[in-house]
Write a structure and sequence with these properties.
The protein is an alpha+beta fold and 712 residues long. The protein contains 22 helices and 27 strands. It has a 7-stranded mixed sheet, sandwiched between helices. The two termini are 43 Å apart.
Length: 712
């Protein structure tokens, strides 16, 4: 399959022969930047065919300086790692032999025409010249390959001058200027290779999302099983999933039961029991039993595919700081050429150097001024930040979202489903009428044993801890009120107490929901029920406070209930009860005060507030398309400590970007001064240039290993 423009994030896709090929946008700057590395497109390459396999090996994604076929920053755009590596080994050997030949040039006839360095020039320099010619003559752009090409052309000119016996200075200090051109080309290609390897590593967290999905699936049609590509599964088809395999699509179990490992989606490490009627997600593992399930979505619309697309979009969207870096980079290359010309004349006029030595210094300027490190500073850090976040179930929509999150000073939390688990529990239990505690528990548990209502389940689970549930003869659900059950000649009811009653007012004041139980019409007990705060909520809020972020609850629930949760998770400020429109006004008021606001909710009634806030995070949003569309960031699991980690990661990413930019600019300016005074030559300049690029990428890659409680 031929190379093509890559859209979205790097990912693997099946090709028509059943193999894999790698596609996707790499994390460099976008085409509109006319500077260096950012002045082109990101493309993918598949390696050579492997015999008989039908697959493609050595695929990689890299940045190009021109249209299709262009080279990278300073290196070839074609081939995979193996071919590029072989080229580098051969070139390294040629450069080493050239160095030895320069010590004993009399041993080689027609030297420097027979200099082994020509091998490295042909292998490494030719792609750079091609890229420079394409960008300059066809696209009318000045790019990094042009700078390097001019530097190598200067080395060739110096070699011709030396061959003709013209005056030369001490700037080179070796027998052949072809050696200089070869070493520049080799070092640029080596630097490009190292950069690509490091950047590819920084994308592993992102690419792992797509790799979780199986390539094939077994579907049952008219009682017959058939294996088809997983991507062809359509809504309504029945899929057969064996133990120790991966669910290929979001589906609802029709028959069988199993334990499912959903850690790839939600981050929860504990397996979840699944049986008929339960929903399973694509990319999660079927651990124990054979099940048949009906697809509830097409394969391409699964939650895993949705998450992968979110990250792909994020890799292609820039942060404002990235666009600023691109604008600076657009000025760097013309400035480098101008600086090289100025140094050429000034070093001769002011320092009295020979024209050849002045040319060497000008060539050095061209080499060290390549802005690869500068342009790599932002996108590599953002890619590493996104990769770290993706590995922890934090889906960030764009580099801009990551940058915005770094600046927040106030966080508003929704209560139900965000700070709480939306799982009710019995907090208080009071008996009356002389009934025994065990008797009440047995009858209440029996009345609610078949209930699916959260309050009914809470009563059943609480009662089961006191006494075994007694099976009722019959039950009758009272919609919106409660339940009635018959046990022989006894009638039991559990329902909300009448408004204004002593029980209702007492429990409301405590922030609880009251459920009154009657046996044969006589008051028997009152259950005080509350929602359960998430186990990680308090730790998350306290960590945000340590980071200088003020937290508040903004909820539609009654104030007593909201304040109860606020006390449990250490949030000092509560806005309740408020309607969705009032949430918008509260957020807007904070923004008018100059606060950078983050809204954190579970999605449905929070969508307008999520859209209004400067930054927005949707929690446990896998089942909620609205939340994913409205929020800039989605937390797949229920661990709220992912929120301070996301903030910490965003701040660390911004610090890394700024450090990268300062480092690259400082090194460039220092190198220009050193080149002006002849302290460094083109070869040393090439080493400095590539070392700076690799240092920037390596510094960005540190974000990949950043722990939730780690330092910078």
């Amino acid at each position: 399959m031929k190379d093509e423009n890559c859209e979205g994030g790097c990912r693997r896709q099946d090709n028509e022969n059943g193999g894999e090929e790698r596609r996707g946008r790499c994390c460099h700057s976008e085409p509109e930047a006319s500077g260096a590395r950012g002045g082109g497109e990101c493309r993918c390459h598949a390696g050579k065919e492997r015999g008989g396999s039908g697959g493609k090996g050595g695929g990689h994604c890299c940045c190009h300086s021109g249209k299709k076929g262009g080279a990278g920053c300073c290196s070839s755009g074609g081939g995979g790692d193996s071919r590029h590596g072989l080229k580098l080994w051969i070139s390294a050997a040629a450069v080493a032999l050239s160095f030895l030949a320069g010590e004993y040039p009399e041993n080689l006839p027609l030297y420097p025409l027979t200099d082994p360095a020509w091998v490295a020039v042909i292998l490494c320099a030719a792609p750079i010249f091609r890229a420079a010619g394409r960008s300059f003559f066809i696209e009318r752009k000045i790019t990094s390959p042009l700078l390097v090409s001019l530097a190598m052309a200067g080395a060739f000119a110096l070699q011709i001058a030396d061959f003709l016996g013209l005056e030369h200075g001490a700037g080179h200090g070796h027998g052949s200027y072809i050696f200089v051109a070869a070493e520049i080309a080799f070092l640029m290609s080596l630097g490009e290779w190292l950069e690509e390897r490091t950047v590819r590593k920084s994308r592993m967290g992102i690419e792992s999302l797509a790799k979780l999905l199986p390539k094939t699936a077994t579907v049952k049609t008219d009682g017959r099983e058939e294996e088809i590509p997983a991507g062809e599964i359509r809504k309504g088809q029945t899929v057969c999933v064996k133990a120790h395999s991966i669910f290929p699509v979001d589906a609802r179990i029709e028959s069988g039961s199993t334990s499912a490992d959903e850690s790839s989606i939600t981050g929860e490490s504990v397996p979840v029991e699944k049986s008929a009627g339960d929903l399973v997600y694509a990319g999660t593992a079927n651990l124990t039993g054979y099940v048949e399930a009906v697809a509830v979505k097409d394969a391409g619309d699964s939650e895993m595919s949705k998450l992968a697309r979110l990250v792909e979009e994020a890799a292609g969207k820039k942060a404002p700081i990235s666009r600023a870096a691109d604008r600076w980079a657009a000025w760097v290359i013309p400035s480098a050429i101008a600086a090289a010309v100025v140094v050429f004349f000034l070093s001769h006029a002011l320092l009295g150097t020979s024209w050849i030595e002045s040319a060497i210094r000008g060539v050095t300027i061209l080499v060290v001024f390549c802005p690869c490190a500068f342009v790599l500073a932002t996108p590599t850090a953002i890619a590493a930040g996104l990769g770290n976040a993706a590995k922890r179930g934090i889906l960030v929509k764009s580099g801009e979202a990551l940058e915005t999150l770094a600046g927040i000073t106030k966080a508003f939390f929704d209560k139900t489903g965000t700070l709480t688990e939306a799982r009710m529990r019995v907090e208080t239990f009071e008996t009356s009428g002389g009934f025994e505690r065990e008797e009440i528990a047995s009858l209440a548990g029996g009345a609610e044993m078949r209930s699916e209502h959260p309050i009914g389940r809470a009563i059943f689970e609480f009662a089961a801890g006191i006494a075994p549930a007694k099976a009722p003869d019959s039950t009758n659900s009272l919609v919106g009120v409660g339940v009635e059950a018959v046990f022989g000649d006894r009638k039991v009811s559990l329902e909300k107490p009448s408004p204004g009653s002593a029980a209702a007012e007492k429990f409301k004041g405590a922030g609880l929901t009251a459920v009154a139980m009657k046996i044969d019409g006589a008051d028997a007990a009152v259950f005080g029920i509350s929602d359960t705060p998430r186990q990680t909520a308090k730790a998350a809020v306290e960590e945000l406070g340590r980071m200088g972020i003020e937290c508040a609850i903004i909820s539609g629930d009654n104030r007593a209930a909201a304040e109860k949760i606020a006390g449990a998770v250490s949030i000092p400020k509560v806005y309740a009860p408020v309607l969705p429109a009032q949430k918008l006004e509260i957020i807007s008021a904070a923004q008018r005060e100059g606060r950078k606001v983050c809204m954190i909710g579970d999605g449905v009634n929070d969508a307008p507030a999520l859209a209004q806030a400067d930054s927005s995070i949707a929690v446990a949003s896998l089942k909620n398309d609205i939340a994913i569309e409205s929020a800039q960031i989605s937390i797949a699991g229920s661990d709220l400590t992912a929120i301070p980690h996301a903030v910490d990661l965003s701040r660390a990413t911004m610090r890394t970007i700024k450090a990268n930019i300062i480092f690259s600019i400082s090194l460039n300016l220092t190198s220009v001064v050193l080149a002006f005074f002849g302290i460094i030559n083109p070869v040393v300049g090439a080493l400095i240039h590539n070392a700076s690029s690799v240092c920037v990428v390596a510094n960005s890659a540190r974000l990949l290993g950043r722990k939730p409680s780690g330092g910078a």
